């Protein structure tokens, strides 16, 4: 009774494994544009794809970031300064890419640039705090995507968006989770539209990883600033003890982050080089075993497992 079922499951598993193990030929002919290559996932991905022979066009926010990356990569890799919140900067980057790739088109766009601060309980934040994050993580990503799509359609290429498990289960205050939820929603609509053009769209959902973005000191600094600029009434209601407990919880959470950034960049590379890329990749055991399953659970259970800060 159970044996046929197990055999069927094993066959499905083998088929999936085989299907996803197929890698494209000629990846060395292909151009990939990556945003946010100064540090973290973008930086690692740029070096990894460069090592595997792809033609990497790496966008950095700062000159220093670009110079450091160049030193560590082959002469194939080209860098460009890009501020995703600045439409002029995005347009001129798109033109730069267009001149390089010309008729061949752009094979891959990796929307990786992002910020995570200020993140604090919602009531300690202002509209501007939300806007700053949304400008980079969501509107910047949309602007880059819209400007690059003609080049991607030309190559029947791939778009890879970096979201987060926060886009599924919002357990932090501030604009970060909102922005990642927006990325998921934008990706879903784009994927359906782009299927018509043979363009594939994938979302990467990393769990907790330790990058410069999630640097503890930097994070706490923003929490402190948000707390200090909160109205007196708010500070009185929450109380100093709450603030200190919150900082401890943040520190504890960030100490648990994984340093295995390659788990994320391997998913990105698969999305760019596999014959059949997946629609969603979850990276890290916390994402796979806790947050993704939790996102399908009833709100009552989510609230029980993720108490307020
Ligand atoms: C790979 O590149 C070679 C030489 O550039 C070409 O002859 C071949 O058709 C390409 N294969 C594919 C699958 O595009
Ligand atoms: C990016 O562009 C925005 C809008 O033009 C500007 O306010 C911001 O200071 C720029 N950031 C950097 C790091 O240049
Ligand atoms: C990536 O995100 C942007 C903006 O949210 C969206 O327009 C695009 O469709 C997404 N692409 C993929 C492949 O998810």
Word description of this protein:
- The structure is a single chain.
- The chain has 309 residues and is of the alpha/beta class.
- The protein has a domain at 24-210 and 259-284: NAD(P)-binding Rossmann-like Domain (Rossmann fold).
- It has helices at 2-21, 40-51, 63-71, 87-101, 127-155, 175-194, 216-229, 232-238, 240-255, 262-273, 285-295, 299-305, and strands spanning 31-34, 55-60, 78-81, 108-111, 158-162, 200-206, 280-283.
- A seven-stranded parallel sheet has the order 3-2-1-4-5-6-7, with helices on both faces.
- The longest helix is centred in the middle third of the chain and has 29 residues, at 127-155.
- The protein starts with a helix and ends with a helix.
- The model has no long low-confidence stretch (mean pLDDT 86).
- One 2-acetamido-2-deoxy-beta-D-glucopyranose binds at residues 111, 141-142, 145, 159, 161, 182-183, 186-187, 190-191, 201-203.
Shape: globular
Number of strands: 7
Could you tell me the radius of gyration in angstroms?
21 Å
Strand proportion, as a percent range, falls in: 5-15%
What letter string, H or E per element, gives the SSE order? HEHEHEHEHEHEHHHHEHH
CATH H-tier superfamily of the domain at 24-210 and 259-284: NAD(P)-binding Rossmann-like Domain
Alpha-beta content class: alpha/beta
Q: Oligomerization state of this entry?
A: single chain
Can you count the helices? Answer: 12
Helix fraction, binned, reads 55-70%
Question: Looking at CATH, which topology of the domain at 24-210 and 259-284 would you report?
Answer: Rossmann fold
Low-confidence stretches: none
Provide the list of bound ligands, each named once.
Answer: 2-acetamido-2-deoxy-beta-D-glucopyranose
List the strand order in the largest sheet. Answer: 3-2-1-4-5-6-7
Identify the CATH architecture of the domain at 24-210 and 259-284.
Answer: 3-Layer(aba) Sandwich
CATH C-level class of the domain at 24-210 and 259-284 is Alpha Beta
